[in-house]
Amino acid sequence: MADLYVPIDHARGGIAGQIAVALRDAVRHGRLEPGRRLPASRDLAADLGVSRGVVVEAYEQLVAEGFLVSRVGSGTHVAPAAARTPAPSPATTAPTGADRTFYGHRATSPDLGHFPRERWLASLRHAVTAIPSDAFDYGDPGGVPELREELAGYLRRVRAADVDPANLVIVGGVAQGLSLVLHVLTQRAGGLPLAVEDPASHRQVPLLRRAGARLLPVPVDDEGVDVAALRDRPARAALVTPAHQYPTGVVLSPGRRAALVEWAQDTGATVLEDDYDAEFRFDRDPVGCLQGLAPGHVVLSGSVSKALAPGLRLGWVAAPAELAEAVRRARGELDLGSPVVEQYALAHFLRTGGYDKHLRQMRREYRRRRDALVGALAEHLPQVRVRGIEAGLHAYLDLPAGWDEGRTAEAARDLGLVAEPVGPMRFTPGGPAVVVGFARLPAHRAEESVIGLKVRMSGQNID
Ligand SMILES: Cc1ncc(COP(=O)(O)O)c(C=O)c1O
After folding, report:
1. Closest by alpha carbon to 152, among 351, 312, 308, 330?
2. Nearest CA to ligand 1 atom 15
3. Given 3.40.640.10, 3.30.70.1050, 3.40.50.620, 2.40.100.10, which CATH number is that of 117-356?
């Protein structure tokens, strides 16, 4: 196992970043040769006097960049080709906010340590052994029929959606579903004025613009998106997160749901429903999806990214028949469809109850983690207002006026929390706020993390 020289300036903050820079440098300059095993994250954390979470974050970053490889049971090693790849100068490859926009952990990500490997493997094995040889050919770009059948049943049962297998298109996640739907809508109209929630996921903005949409921000308040303000915009479609607004966590109120559907009916506009984390509801009765209220006007997009893992890149779009067919055709023309074996595996996983079972287990665990985080915040940082925790995998924290949200998020990340400032998600400036993911924060570590945050932020007039 490698003994490592990792200089850290604790006063400077950004500890995970400092560790990543030191390790990357050691690999590039051959001080850590290909195949060399790195210390376990717990050991390196103890050596450096930092929390294990920051070492894990640094390792994950370098795995994502290809410098390290990590295998269950055999630890983390320097990637075989890492040193042979001539590296661009550090100045151009230091991890920046922009680098991290599209990969790595998000506040909405699940705990991947709980991925049901054995049960997923059983479904994969079933798929590979049971499907006929012809099924390995190019599949229907709309998705394999068995999966569409299972998903339609699941969405009707769990999300009160009004879907038929024929109206479903299997895609590589909500992101690809939105891209395809917008591609079709913008091509038809020669552009698309698209209402978006303010604030919204800043990661979606490049996707929406690339698909040709012109964004029209609409404010979000305690009831969700402000439909009266939406009526003042010349929008032909609206992208919303009714089950759990991202990032505020607000659930769209019954009155606003009705008003939004009425707007779509009056204007002939399309509502794009991003149902990204709807499986996780904790305190309130399940809220059905908007699509179930108005299947002729709403396009529902969902995925297994929060329920299972984002890396599977499996999702769905449920759309009115004619639009579903156009999306299916576009998918075929653009790239011939999603991988087939994984679709059969997901169909098997759904059919045999693996999906429901995993969700039940995770819901219980995430509720414990959320309660621990919220309890610790109430006790140690009562100045912080916690919102949006009835559902999903992140909490929205309104910070006291004097706090800098960027520094708060960085301090939280140093403590092993997944945190992001809300500023980049806003179209209109607002008060300081951060989102914090609790899915990967074990309940027993919540208090220590929050106390650490209190100490780090003590210079910012928190008392
Ligand atoms: C609000 C929101 N919508 C959509 C997505 C993307 O989901 P998918 O992995 O299904 O493309 C995310 C991922 O973090 C998200 O936060």
Report:
1. 351
2. 276
3. 3.40.640.10
